[in-house]
Each structure stands twice: as structure tokens, then as C-alpha cells.
Specification:
single chain; alpha/beta; eleven-stranded mixed beta sheet; seven-stranded mixed beta sheet; about 35% helix; binds zinc ion
Length: about 800
């Protein structure tokens, strides 16, 4: 007989871990107890030593689906205190650092799915069925500790049957805070655009009727897990087009929901890894390669208006019982897009939905459980042989990222994130909690959500920042809010360079230590504020967590009209051609379509603006270069209707002509002030315009442009790694969401650099910025502290 104590850290609370341990121990005849405490789960166990050894192996071999074990330690226990049974003990609050943390919302588990589709089950057709392995979490929590009273399940006291299951450690619903049934839980209803609803219908009848309305081509507002979404039949072209027009969302792709993997596979190819991701508890939108048009499938094709100009289709599986029950009644996939007008955040509230979606939705499928925290659908894509999160929200937040163990000594740091695609980050020791995607802070409603989430996360994780990190951009609202907070709380404020933060985010995710040697970071994106006061976005930085040095960059080119240049790609095209020698170029290539077009614009005004530096900030942005090339090829020449549109459509075009033999255009490297190399595009523009003049297909030109970029990146990466003796290359920034570019660069660099790091668990775009800000602040604070020791 032996006595041991096992401590487990990780995501082990609120995920059914204690009943799992209780089951295992009871089966093996082990006595003792399991309890939650401030550090995770503590098990005291008595048994034969081989049995205890098996017990320990089984814990790590098959933990509950939503659990994540980060560390397991075993110590000798107290032989004398041996009990005669195994019990789940009350939580030990005396050592509690924080109460049970909140885990991400999890998609319907197989056991609950079986119940809702089984007529004899008491959960048949019940849209709020959940258990410890699935169901809402972050979306319904108002405060800590995470128990029913602090969630939007509070108004629904459990009936006797539910309570019995909740209290029974042998039951899958033991301590499942959202547990409910048709007798005691929330309910759905269907109302029309004028608010008329029938209260006497059963859930079954309501679901049948909703499915019928969708099949007729109507637009339904559906209250889902993290927000209210708009749905239409994805195979009905008129319905999809009408939704676009009413929502004023003209080009940005729509996400789709398919009943199951087989239904999705009718429209897109699904690899085993993609199927696994679609079916995971996070149930994200996965970007998949569509089948070529006119394929021999017998199903009805998707409406062409779903994803114009895109190389991928965003598909997800039902993530809640409501979606599962609805999809089971439908023949075709549905469009499921955020319930809002244009770019506002999606509604979460019934009355907001009625106000904001009036004139868009024909009917509303609503329910009486509040969505407390807005959670957008997460988006993942497989690129360069790994899943890459592009938007981190439902199913992922607020699950902590585990940093290198050298971060264990760091205190609490709050990083405010970016302006667009905002997330914030709470770092404490090795754990970095990245908030759900909140969106673009220029919208008042998004800003409100940002404040709300900041407050909530602080309370949920008992977080008191000792330092606040912000972006250096003087106009970022996140920066201003952070500055005010630091002032009020009298704590240090650390402004951090945008691209340095991008690089540090990847270093942190890949668990590089706090005192890591410098890496070569290649950060390509739209715009970020540079240390010299200009806008950066095509950067090669030598960086560790504390410092960085700009080694090379794209040629800075003016953006005539500032933000107007971001919306109107032709402005960037003119600016680039101006920098490449407008007089000569416009003469030599006067017969090309782009030069003729530019002559219809107010060029003398633009000339003057550029020459006198009026509202024409200089920028080394990779995004603006993409805009310029797209405009030259008549893609989104006049304007874009969403961020990144020109680059996305250019990539799509390039893909059709891409081959191993696609040649690159020439470019020129110039040394500047001895230490900085600048990539000049003039030779590329000459060759590109020449190709246009020779009427080479534009797809071929788009492909050559992509090859040029991958050549520049690869050549500079090798050269700079060699001259600065670094072994690690980091690729980051939104421009690397371009699959063609990322895969061309990774293929070229694979055998030429010892180690290539790319973000996977955090977005490549500004959605990952906060993690980098937090890691830099942690390293800087720690270094300062170490110097004072
Ligand atoms: Zn379940
Ligand atoms: Zn009940």
C-alpha cells in the first residue's frame, strides 16, 4: 500500500475533470479524494503502487475532451490518513489564487448530439442541451466564480431530474453549469418581422417551420452561441444576393454551415486534418478549397455570390444543439453571417436584433437565454502544412497560451492590442490569455464590447496589471484607453513598435525564452507606426523580446490622401509609378490601360500633394504595394469594399497561372546610411508594365509579382541571417495570410534556414499583436528588475 499526492495544472477546472478522476479511481479501487484548488486539481490517493502507476498513466492518456494537462507532479502522500472510499471534495479556497477559470464555449458533444436526435430521450429536439463536455461557457458568464448564479442560466432553476444529474458524480452532467431540459430551461420561439410570435408551438414545430422558411429563400435572424446571425439557403442565388444588398455587404465572403462533413465535402475538398478541425470542440470556420465549378456532383451548386474573388470557402459544422437540429432538417448548406449592417459588431440582444436587423431579416428565431459576451466565429486555415488561426474567438478564447518557463517570474501585464481586429492580452507568469476578437475599435459598439471584455477578464482571472503595453501609434484608441488606465492606476506604460510586437507574438507562441537570442523577423502588413514617425509595413527586423533593429524595408512610398489611399488602390498605383519615375513611365507605357486610366484622375493635384508632402504620409507598406499592383491589373482599381480585398483577389488571380517555373521580376537593393537596405521596385514596375504592354495575361503578371516578393524575402532572409548570425526566421503580419506567398516563401526557405517560425495559435494579422506587446513588456520589466537586483 502506498500514498501519493498528484497535482495537475492546465485547463482542468470546469471541464469535468473531478468526476473523470473519481470514475478512474473508483474503477481501480483507489481510495482518497480529488479537489480543485488555486493551482489546478489536487488528488490524494491510496492504493497498491502498480495500481497508482496505472492510475497516473490513465489520467494523462485519456483526459476529458475539454481538458488540457500542462503539468503533472507526484509527491509522497500521508500513509496514516488513509480513507476507505474515493470522494470529490469541496474546493480548497484557502490557497485559491483565482476561482475556477472560465473555459471556451464548446460545440455539442457526440453524447448530447445523440440525445437531441433520439425521440425517446428527454432531450429530444431540445436546443439547449449540454453537459460537462460541451456547451456555452464564456458567452454566458457575467462574473466569477463560474457557477450558474453568475451566468445567464441564473433565471432557470433546475427541475428535480436535472438537479439529480447535476449532483451525481457518475453523471456526465455533474456540475455542468448550463444543464437544463425542456421542463426547466430556456426556450426558442419564431417571430416575424412585425414581432408577431406564436407561443404555443413546440420546439419541434418551430424548428420545422424555420427550416421551411429557409428553404423558401427567406432571410432568418438566428440567435446562436455568441451572437445573432443572418441565415439564408446557400444554394439560392437570389436569396444570397438579396442578403448582400440588404446588409450592404457587397463583396466580403460569407461563411457557410454544412450539416456534416459529407455535406461539406459535396462543395469543397476536406482533408482528414481539416475534418478533425471542423469537428473539434472549438468548431471554427475552416477555409477550404472549393471543388471546381461544373464538377460532376449531383447536388445543387452554391450561389456564386457567396465568395466572389476568393480561393477558399469558409465552412463550419453546427456548433450548438440549435444549429444541429436545424441543419438536420435542411437539404443544403446555409450562409451564416454576423447579424449586423455592414461592418458593425453582430447583435447579441433580442431587442437590438429587432431594431438593427429590421428590413433585413424576414423572421427571427430567438430564445430567452442572454448572450452575455459577444463571440464571433473563429476562422482557421491550413497553410504551410499547419492550421493557422485567422480570427480567434468562439471555441478558443479565453484558453491560455503557455509561454516558455522563463516567463514564470513575470508579473501581471495587460497589453491593449491593435486598432483593427483588436484583441487584448493578459499575461501572468507563463500564461497569456488572449481575449476574443473584438474587432475594429473605430465602431462605438466595438469599443463598448472592448471595455466590457476588459472589465470581465480582469474579474474572471483576478488580474491586476503591474504594467500596460500599447502600440506606439499616437491615434490608436486602444493606446489612448491604455494610457488613461495606466495614469489612473499609476502603473508604468510601455509603447511598443507595431512590427516588433508582431515578431514577439510568434516568438512567444513558439515558447522562445525570455532571454532569447535575436531572430530575423519579417513583418509584412498593411500599416504600423514606425519608430521614425513614418508608417511601416514591409519590415526585416533583427529582434529579441527587448530590442529590435531595422535591417531592411520596402521602399517608402507616399500614400496620397492618407486613409483615402487605403480605400482607393489606384492612388497607390500612381504613387508607386511616381516613385519609379512617372514622366518616363507614362510616356513609354502610354498605350496601357492603367496609364490611360490614371490620366483620367486629377494627377496635377496628386503631384503637388506628393511633392509638397500634403496629406501623403510615406509608407513602406506591403499591403499598399499589393494595392498598387492590383490596380495596375484592373483589380479593385477604383476602390475596395473591405480591408485586404485587392490583395485577396490578386492572389486568387495569380493562383490560376502559378507554376514552378513562374519567373520573378527584377528589383533593386540599395544601402541606406550603411545599416539599412531598401528594396526598390522601379525595375519591377518597368518589367510589369512591359508585360501589360505585350498583353501577357494578367493572371501570369499577378503570379510573377508573387514570385518577385517570395524571391526578395528568401534572398534577404538568407543574406541577413548570414550577416547577423541568426538561426531563426519569423514570418508575420497580415500579408502572410496570402497562402500563395506564405507557401512559396516557406518552400524556398525550408532547406536554407535552420528554423522558420510562423504563427498558428494566434492570428498572423493584428489579432495576434497583443500577445507580442505583452511578451515584450514582460521581458522589458523583467530585465529592468534584474538590473535593480
Ligand atoms: Zn455534451
Ligand atoms: Zn430540467
Amino acid at each position: 500500500m502506498t500514498a501519493i499526492t498528484i497535482r495537475i495544472r492546465g485547463l482542468v477546472q470546469g471541464v469535468g475533470f473531478r468526476p473523470f478522476i473519481w470514475h478512474l479511481a473508483t474503477e481501480l479501487g483507489i481510495t482518497g479524494s480529488v479537489r480543485n484548488d488555486g493551482e489546478g486539481v489536487r488528488i490524494d490517493a491510496w492504493g497498491e503502487s502498480e495500481t497508482l502507476e496505472r492510475f497516473r498513466l490513465l489520467i494523462t492518456a485519456q483526459p476529458p475532451p475539454l481538458a488540457r494537462i500542462d503539468a503533472l507532479e507526484q509527491m509522497a502522500g500521508d500513509m496514516a490518513a488513509r480513507p476507505d472510499q474515493f470522494v470529490i471534495a469541496a474546493s480548497d479556497c484557502s490557497t485559491s489564487i483565482h476561482a475556477t477559470p472560465v473555459t471556451p464555449d464548446a460545440a455539442l458533444c457526440p453524447a448530447c448530439m445523440a440525445e437531441i436526435h433520439t425521440p425517446s430521450s428527454r432531450f429530444f429536439d431540445y436546443p439547449f442541451t449540454s453537459c460537462t463536455h460541451c456547451g456555452p461557457r464564456l458567452s454566458i458568464v457575467r462574473a466569477t466564480p463560474y457557477d450558474r448564479a453568475n451566468t445567464s442560466m441564473a433565471p432557470f432553476p433546475m427541475c428535480a431530474s436535472c438537479q439529480r444529474e447535476y449532483d451525481d458524480p457518475a453523471n456526465r452532467r455533474f456540475h455542468a453549469q448550463a444543464h437544463a431540459c425542456p421542463a426547466c430551461g430556456p426556450s426558442i420561439w419564431l417571430e416575424d418581422a412585425s414581432g408577431r410570435r406564436s407561443d404555443t408551438e413546440t420546439a419541434t414545430a418551430i424548428l420545422d417551420r424555420t427550416a421551411a422558411l429557409l428553404s423558401q429563400g427567406l432571410i432568418l435572424a438566428i440567435k446562436g452561441t455568441g451572437g445573432i446571425q443572418l441565415a439564408v439557403d446557400a444554394t439560392n442565388h437570389a436569396a444570397v444576393t438579396r442578403l448582400r444588398r440588404l446588409k450592404q455587404r457587397y463583396d466580403k465572403p460569407f461563411a457557410l454551415m454544412g450539416r456534416d462533413i459529407a455535406a461539406i465535402a459535396c462543395h469543397a475538398s476536406v482533408t482528414p486534418a481539416e475534418a478533425e478541425l471542423l469537428s473539434s470542440a472549438a468548431a471554427p470556420i475552416v477555409l477550404l478549397a472549393p471543388h471546381p465549378q461544373q464538377s460532376k456532383n449531383t447536388h445543387r451548386p452554391l450561389a456564386t455570390a457567396i465568395a466572389p474573388g476568393q480561393s477558399r470557402l469558409g465552412f463550419m459544422l453546427p456548433n450548438s444543439p440549435l444549429h444541429s437540429l436545424l441543419m438536420a432538417r435542411l437539404q443544403h448548406p446555409i450562409v451564416l453571417t454576423s447579424g449586423n449592417r455592414s461592418d458593425e459588431p453582430q447583435c447579441i440582444d433580442n431587442s437590438d436584433a429587432r431594431d438593427h436587423l429590421a428590413g433585413i431579416a424576414d423572421h427571427f428565431l430567438l430564445h430567452n437565454r442572454d448572450i452575455v459576451n459577444r463571440l464571433d466565429d473563429s476562422v482557421v486555415t491550413f497553410m504551410a502544412e499547419a492550421p493557422r488561426l485567422l480570427r480567434r474567438a468562439r471555441g478558443y478564447a479565453p484558453s491560455p497560451l503557455l509561454l516558455h518557463h522563463s516567463f514564470a517570474r513575470c508579473g501581471h501585464i495587460l497589453a491593449m492590442g491593435s486598432e483593427m481586429k483588436n484583441t487584448f492580452c493578459q499575461l501572468s507568469g507563463r500564461e497569456a490569455i488572449l481575449s476574443q476578437h473584438t474587432g475594429d475599435l473605430e465602431h462605438a459598439a466595438t469599443r463598448h464590447d472592448y471595455h466590457h471584455a476588459l472589465e470581465l477578464y480582469r474579474q474572471l482571472f483576478a488580474f491586476n496589471p503591474a504594467c500596460i503595453a500599447i502600440d506606439q501609434h499616437p491615434d490608436y484608441l486602444s493606446g489612448r484607453i491604455g494610457t488613461d488606465m495606466a495614469g489612473q492606476e499609476r502603473i508604468p506604460l510601455l509603447p511598443i513598435q507595431h512590427h516588433h510586437a508582431h515578431i514577439a507574438a510568434v516568438m512567444a507562441e513558439h515558447q522562445l525564452p525570455l532571454d532569447s537570442k535575436p531572430v530575423l523577423g519579417i513583418a509584412l502588413d498593411g500599416l504600423g507606426f514606425g519608430s521614425d514617425g513614418t508608417l511601416w509595413g514591409g519590415e526585416f527586423l533583427l529582434a529579441d523580446y527587448c530590442h529590435y533593429k531595422r535591417l531592411a524595408c520596402f521602399q517608402p512610398v507616399p500614400m496620397p490622401g492618407g486613409t483615402q489611399a487605403i480605400r482607393e488602390p489606384w492612388r497607390n498605383c500612381f504613387a508607386h509609378l511616381h516613385a519609379a519615375g512617372w514622366d518616363d513611365i507614362s510616356r513609354r507605357f502610354s498605350d496601357t490601360d492603367i496609364i490611360r486610366f490614371l490620366h483620367t484622375r486629377p494627377l496635377p493635384v496628386l503631384h503637388r500633394m506628393i511633392e509638397q508632402g500634403i496629406n501623403t504620409p510615406a509608407s513602406s507598406s506591403c499591403g499598399r504595394l499589393f494595392d498598387a499592383v492590383a490596380a495596375a491589373l484592373a483589380i479593385c482599381r477604383h476602390q475596395v469594399s473591405y480591408e485586404g480585398q485587392a490583395a485577396i483577389e490578386l492572389e486568387h488571380l495569380a493562383r490560376s497561372a502559378w507554376s514552378r517555373h513562374t519567373p520573378a521580376y527584377p528589383y533593386r537593393l540599395e544601402r541606406h546610411a550603411d545599416t539599412l537596405q531598401i528594396i526598390h521596385w522601379q525595375p519591377m514596375w518597368q518589367a510589369l508594365l512591359n508585360d501589360l504592354q505585350q498583353q501577357l495575361p494578367v493572371a501570369e503578371i499577378a503570379a510573377r509579382f508573387h514570385r518577385t516578393l517570395s524571391h526578395v524575402i528568401t534572398a534577404l532572409a538568407q543574406q541577413l541571417c548570414h550577416s547577423h548570425a541568426t538561426a531563426i526566421v519569423v514570418l508575420c503580419g497580415g500579408a502572410f495570410q496570402n497562402r500563395l506567398l506564405l507557401e512559396a516563401v516557406t518552400a524556398d526557405l525550408a532547406d536554407k534556414t535552420p528554423q522558420l517560425l510562423i504563427a498558428g495559435q494566434t492570428p498572423l494579422n493584428d489579432g495576434g499583436l497583443a500577445l507580442g506587446q505583452a511578451a515584450i513588456a514582460a521581458a522589458t520589466q523583467w530585465t529592468k528588475g534584474a538590473q535593480h537586483d
